Amino acid sequence: MDWKIESFAFWLSSLFPTTVHLTQPAGLGLMKCRLMMKLWNKYKVTSIPSLVFVDAVTGKVVCRNGLLVVRDDPKGLEFPWGPKPFAEVVAGPLLRNNRQTTDSSSLEGHYVGVYFSAHWCPPCRSLTRVLVESYRAVKESGQKFEIVFVSADRSEASFKQYFSEMPWLAVPYPDEARRSRLNRLYGIQGIPTLILLDTEGHMITRQGRVEVLNDPECRLFPWHPRPVLELSEANAVQLHEGPSLVLFVDAEEEGELEPAKELIQPIAEKLMAKYKAKEEETPLLFFVAGEDDMTDSLRDYTNLPEAAPLLTILDMSGPCQVRPRRRGDHAGRGEDGYCDFLPFALKGGEV
């Protein structure tokens, strides 16, 4: 038996009240697998073990990093472990790399980047070099902006070495409890991660890393979410976070993607507004893709034809691919045509 099948079945048996056996009817196993994938997608689980606390009444996530909660609060003194304001969680002294300290209250009225990173992580070091230049560019433009480094280094010596390269603030390394609470607050599951907050401490985006790499000159700072993105090597990682609508077009030069973006932008804006009103994350990302190496790689990976224009809804985190039955089915159909596909994609179906 393949070891992947064994571990997969074991995980299912821990999730459902009855154990999944390989001798069960294929239909039953498939149904449970689809349910599992929906749960993984809904709660953005990227690894196991993972423990997510959910409000049983509203269905909203209370805490994504349940394992950290159990470790840090084994007696449940902070139950029900709901999210707290950033200002409350970060409260306390913050370091500068010249060994001076400042109180976290100095962050009031500033845009804040909460930077989870570590020296042992090569992608972290690469991002830090770019982020230093972006940080200086924003400060020089007159914006009130600060970054707080939350270290995942394995020793204080590594922290000090890494932090010496950074012109911003940091949570003191010995304050493990505060670093852990910040990880819990934002459900950090991997590094590097850059969270952008507005001047009131509300989250603007979790995709600070992507934004910095796509916009190193910070022309779009503070990087509010855009309804439609141009697919690039930097933001392609977002395709793995859940369903994404991708419109492939025959465009190679800069600016040629604008008509495609304008075509799907009304649908994207409508969906964003709907879920913002419910204080939930938009369940579908929107991309336009031209003719380049990144697009070719995506087509190859998803076994998509070379047709253009081509509208697809891909779920890279699960076995779902939705596209028109015939080439050109979507052309000129407007919002109704695109929205026909949404229920299938968001429920894990196929057209």
UniProtKB/TrEMBL annotation:
EC annotation from Swiss-Prot or TrEMBL: 1.8.1.8
Protein name in the entry: Nucleoredoxin
EC main group: oxidoreductase
A Pfam family it matches: Thioredoxin_8
Catalytic function, reaction form: [protein]-dithiol + NAD(+) = [protein]-disulfide + NADH + H(+); [protein]-dithiol + NADP(+) = [protein]-disulfide + NADPH + H(+)
Domain Thioredoxin: 42-242
Gene Ontology molecular function, alphabetical: thioredoxin-disulfide reductase (NADPH) activity
Recorded family membership: Belongs to the nucleoredoxin family.
Natural source organism: Collichthys lucidus (Big head croaker)
GO biological process, one term: negative regulation of Wnt signaling pathway
Domain of life: Eukaryota
PROSITE patterns: THIOREDOXIN_2
Any Gene Ontology CC annotation: nucleus
